[in-house]
Amino acid sequence: xxxxxxxxxxxxxxxxxxNDAGIIPAPAKCEMAAGGYMVAATNKICWRGTExxxxxxxxxxxxxxxxxxxxxxxxxxxxxxAPAGAIVLDLAPGPFVAEAYLLKVEPAGITLRAGxxxxxxxxxxxxxxxxxxxxxxPGNPLKLPAVSxxxxxxxxxxxxxxxxxxxxxxxxAVKELLDVMASLKLNRFHWHLTDESGWRxxxxxxxxxxxxxxxxxxxxxxxxxxxxxxxxxxxxVAYAAAxxxxxVPEIDMPGHATAACRAYPELSGGGTGQWNGFTFNPARxxxxxxxxxxxxxxxxLFPGPYVHLGxxxxxxGNQCWSTDPEIVKFTQAHGLRDxxxxxxxxxxxxxxxxxxxxxxxxxxxxxxxxGVAPAQSAVMWWRHDRRQVLTQLLEQNxxxxxxxxxxxxxxxxxxxxxxxxxxxxxxFNSLDDVYQVPEAVTAGLIPAxxxxxxxxxxxxxxxxxxxxxxxxxxxxxxxxxxxxxxxxTPAGAKDKSGFIGRVxxxxxELDRRHIPYFDPFKPARTAEPAGPLKKAEGTANG
Length: 542
Ligand code: TNX
Known about the structure:
The protein is α/β, with parallel strands linked by helices.
């Protein structure tokens, strides 16, 4: 995993390779042709089909930002032909798989066709990246190369997880992240909103979750409350949805519950020192009533089909589940053998609650042994060192999202010289490693016939060691671009050196948005922002 990387790019910034429109993630099929389309102020953006109007607006605004021209827009009714030289977005039911699009750039005009608003939106992202590449290349900045693209994603789940419990980043940083995700055709924003350091989502029925539970963060216990109100949550969810991104909330249980138990100590499963209140108390009906009420508010806020219940690392802080008389009595009364049995009971019961609220339950891979119904759940495989767990999950018919720590955890450093961040026995997650997902991590592990149970891939930005927007960006970029290509581009169309050639345009786009990043072309010259100085007293993990 540590490998020597980027010998190919050491010499400086490569230009997009031939036969390559400069797009990340690389399209499934892309054929360059002679000549190009000149973007002129007199050209129009036209759309057919009501759902095509929003993508057309994104195109208009995006072109203005990148090339400084604001093209006029107009809707077309079917029989009306487009004016000469127009860029036409056509919502055309036809032989399109979900999210697919066709894009033809010709000297006489541009046509973008798709069967859904998502497909059109992704075609627009491809066009905007071509415009950014044209502006950056020497020569004629408004000429888009002629090309014919047929594109659709390899995986339906193309995700990024952000942990806002350990450190809180706030709305502008999240929107900025969603903008970049959308440009990379990522479509799942997994939002880790509760953990030891803070509870970050307003729950009307339990105000102390935020007046008390949102105080402090991983590195500073003394900070005032930082959290999202329900109005904030709705705003972010809508912002993401407008960019074809489904937001997936995570309410971690029964472990990683310290912030909630700080607010409502009667819910605590006990523990001492840094593990005090790490788990909910599994023996009290009050716990289940509380969590059901929380999930009721959560499901009302997130229209997407999934709710994540965490379920990870319970063993870190459930020691007193084996000694506390109330919990021991509960264990026996329910015919459970031990603390592990109680953990499984908890996961089964709460997965059922989520299903009854009309949602698919997601959980970390620990929940699989609990007997949670595969038809109504999906699992995130994160323990890369437990390779056989992936095979077992698939054999048991679970749908699985791949997010193995190596190489999908973005709290791990991405360059040998970096000091702030995690490593695993010295190994870290370079851009190159991320580009090898999924093949490098799943080789030999996917049982025959279960390939389609792999929903996709996700990068996880845990934030014990990431305390602000600058460090977050430094850790995420440009690895997120590699993750996006691994998630979208069919294995046969992936080409590492082509990808490396396209990274500079992506970095310039980050420059344009004033987003910092690690520059793999100049590793020694990209200063690593300092991590948090210390862990605050009383916080677990990390
Ligand atoms: C493990 S991944 C955790 C997180 C930590 C992360 C740090 C998972 C399901 N649990 O609580 O933040 O490692 O890399």
